[in-house]
């Protein structure tokens, strides 16, 4: 059996919110396999894994350049302290960087190209401000059939960009969709976007819950169908209760808008 360190137990507890002994036992049963231990905790109904994932203590800022139309760019620049993250020189650099990114070639993740291009500038910034910094990621989107819309929350702690088509002439409606994504953290656009193996794994986890043990197959199938539908309403943008009216889903509240892709970044989140 693999030796289970206290730090690994703490990491699992921080990620899941489960008790220390539950985490230790799960790791022991999984022979130290972190992912398997997390999955087993979910199957036992002890934790819902999404609730506390993504926590981080890293500081920095997200900046977006979207001037309307079919193009948008976004960068995340990290530093050591919140004091520097609020520094005007640091914020100005992030804003200038998005302008540079918008002029670069590409349609998607261009982090490596931006990091390489900005090495001399980053070296100077580190020397001037006196704190380690890094360009963590950068993207540039060009919509092929619609427009890009964006939203920054909490002064640059969360950034969202969508590529949408259809009835996209109302910028307020598009911004509301971006705000919804910032608040509700969807993983997928719609149920059809979820990979089959992910759905199968979710069904397996749901079927393993103690309260479903011994249920007849036809009853179990109905329960699982309901659980999967509820899960899809949590993780799919189109099925989530709408930010402005929770009696409507996002798709029903915005029937003419098709979100082709979206991205939601949060400063320092786990990648």
Would you give an account of this structure?
Among the domains are: 6-52, Ubiquitin-associated (UBA) domain (Helicase, Ruva Protein, domain 3, Orthogonal Bundle); 59-162, Tetrahydropterin Synthase, Chain A. It is flat, with a radius of gyration of 22 Å. It has eleven helices and seven strands. Helices cover 43% and strands 20% of the residues. The protein has a four-stranded antiparallel β-sheet with strand order 1-2-4-3. It has a three-stranded antiparallel β-sheet with strand order 5-6-7. It is an alpha+beta fold and 271 residues long.
Topology summary:
Blueprint: H1 6-16, H2 20-29, H3 34-43, E1 59-65, E2 71-79, H4 82-85, H5 88-102, E3 108-109, H6 111-117, H7 119-129, E4 133-142, E5 147-153, E6 158-166, H8 171-184, H9 196-207, H10 217-235, H11 250-253, E7 257-266
Antiparallel strand pairs: 1-2, 2-4, 3-4, 5-6, 6-7
Task: Characterize this entry briefly.
This protein has helices spanning 6-16, 20-29, 34-43, 82-85, 88-102, 111-117, 119-129, 171-184, 196-207, 217-235, 250-253, and strands at 59-65, 71-79, 108-109, 133-142, 147-153, 158-166, 257-266. It is an alpha+beta fold and 271 residues long.
């Amino acid at each position: 059996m693999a030796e289970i360190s206290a730090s690994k137990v703490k990491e699992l507890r921080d990620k899941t919110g489960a008790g220390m002994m539950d985490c230790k036992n799960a790791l022991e049963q999984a022979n130290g396999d972190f992912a398997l231990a997390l999955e087993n905790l979910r199957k036992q109904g002890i934790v819902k894994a999404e609730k506390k994932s993504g926590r981080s203590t890293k500081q920095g800022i997200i900046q977006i350049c979207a001037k309307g139309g079919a193009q948008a760019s976004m960068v995340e620049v990290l530093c050591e302290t919140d004091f520097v993250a609020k520094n005007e020189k640091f914020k100005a650099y992030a804003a200038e960087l998005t302008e540079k990114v918008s002029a670069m070639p590409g349609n998607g993740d261009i982090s490596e190209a931006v990091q390489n291009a900005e090495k001399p500038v980053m070296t100077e910034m580190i020397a001037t401000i006196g704190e380690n910094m890094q360009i963590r990621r950068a993207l540039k989107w060009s919509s092929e059939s619609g427009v890009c819309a964006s939203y920054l929350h909490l002064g640059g702690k969360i950034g969202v960009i969508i590529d949408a088509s259809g009835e996209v002439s109302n910028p307020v409606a598009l911004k509301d969709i971006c705000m919804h994504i910032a608040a509700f953290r969807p993983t997928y656009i719609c149920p059809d976007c979820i990979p089959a193996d992910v759905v199968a794994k979710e069904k397996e986890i749901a079927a393993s819950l103690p309260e479903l043990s011994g249920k007849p197959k036809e009853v179990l199938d109905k329960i699982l169908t309901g659980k999967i539908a509820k899960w899809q309403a949590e993780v799919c943008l189109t099925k989530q209760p709408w930010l402005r009216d929770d009696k409507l889903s996002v798709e029903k509240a915005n029937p003419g808008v098709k979100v082709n892709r979206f991205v939601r970044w949060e400063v320092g989140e786990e990648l």
